[in-house]
Amino acid sequence: MYTNESDMRLKTAPTKMGNPQFGSIAVRCPSRLLEIALIFFIVLSAPQAQTAELGDIQGTVIDRKLEKPLVSYPVTLTIHKTDTVETQETTTDENGDYRFAELPLDPSVYYTVSTVHEGTDYTEKDLVLSTWVPNLKIDFDIGAFADDNAQIRVKTHSFIIGPPPADHAPDGAVTVAEAIGIENLSTLPFRTTHGTQKVGVNLTLPRGVEGLQPHSPNLTMDPNTNQILLKTPLPPGESPLGYEYIFHIEKSKLDLSRRLNFNTNQFFVFVPEGIGIVPRGKFFGAPRREQIHNNVYLIYESDGNQTFAAGEKIDLALNINMGAARGALPGQTSNVGQLIFIAVAAALTGGFFVAALFKLRAASNTTGSDTDDTSTPPDAGWLLKLNADDREHVRVARLEFITHLDDKYERQEISERVYKRLRREQTERLTTLLEHQKRGNNA
What we know:
- The structure is a single chain.
- The strands form nine sheets. Strands 12, 13, 17, 20, 23, 24, 26 and 27 form an eight-stranded mixed sheet that branches.
- The protein has helices at about 30-50, 370, 380-385, 390-410, 415-440; strands at about 10-15, 20-25, 55-65, 70, 75-80, 85-90, 95-105, 110-115, 120-125, 135, 140, 150-160, 175-185, 190-195, 195-200, 200-205, 210-215, 220, 225-230, 235-250, 255, 260, 265, 265-270, 275-280, 290, 295-300, 315, 315-320, 345-350, 350-355.
- The chain is built from five helices and 31 strands.
- Mean pLDDT is about 75; it is low at about 1-30, about 40-50 and about 325-380.
- With about 450 residues, the protein is of the alpha+beta class.
- The longest helix has 27 residues, at about 415-440.
- The N and C termini lie far apart (about 120 Å).
- It folds into four domains: about 10-50, no CATH class; about 55-140, Sandwich (Immunoglobulin-like); about 150-365, Sandwich (Immunoglobulin-like); about 370-443.
- It is about 20% helix and about 35% strand.
- Helix 4 (about 390-410) runs antiparallel to helix 5.
């Protein structure tokens, strides 16, 4: 018999079946029993813990046009971690099924699953795996589209008034840039019918648009219907669309009115300060003054509580009041194109247009003053009427425009002949301005 106090003595008792079982346990050393128990607990629980920390994302890719699975079709998984972004790619099997396995169940990790078919992106974002939801099933219905116009909402439709291109005839033309924040409320890409073709969206333009330049991809204009078209389906969620064109002032107004194809929440009109252009629509309130990229605008905003329904014709005409411009004489509204003297293109950045500053040249009582005095350097006359701050604004605008020209020429968006002529003209005007600034500083 063991006498060591650290040993255990086990007494057995027969059962009714005659098999021995432990009837009692006399513990001389609890620490050793605890060690044994911990070892068994760790060994038995380790596989379960490892399994619980991994999950998977799987699904099926179906071609709804043919109602059959897409076989050997690529599917991409993007793993968004705190400091890194990783991607995995797999292909579907003979049943159109795909699976990404052994994914960590980390609430700080987000997943995106995507595929592309005929130029259309199909994406599921912000997927999270956890111990509560270790497995997700994400199916892709390829070729399935929403076609209910009520699912499309224009959240904001903005108009930015700017000068015409520098080489445009002074015939009362201006540049109008439109920035549209449009939302597809459906979970499927939206597509509608325009004539005989399928398009993402179609938006009505005012009559008389010239030289349309899209700032968003896959935009084109149908001159027969006067509509701008998105050639690809509109994906779910919000999308920015933008374009600009040349438009003409007629009968002392700039009429941008059109019939709406989709419900619209709000309109904005950006007018550079000092320009006598005011929206005619009664739904526009008093403007607020705001500085954007060193340029000051009057921003007219429609009533946020009013929604403009699809099919409704909206009064978007802008009245021209030259008497509101600094130095202009009452009633002088003709030849507006000659009055705009800073030609800087509008640009689309991050979904929003940043229009360049421009001002109206004070109208003169002397006819032919712009052409008779050929000895006067470009811009010399009106530069004398500006204060130091205005001249600095003009200097910055000239430099920005020259940079913009260089960029467009480098991207081969304008011809060499036009580029050289415009750059020479702007450089000469900048030189004249710098000379005036130097004289002012010396005075």
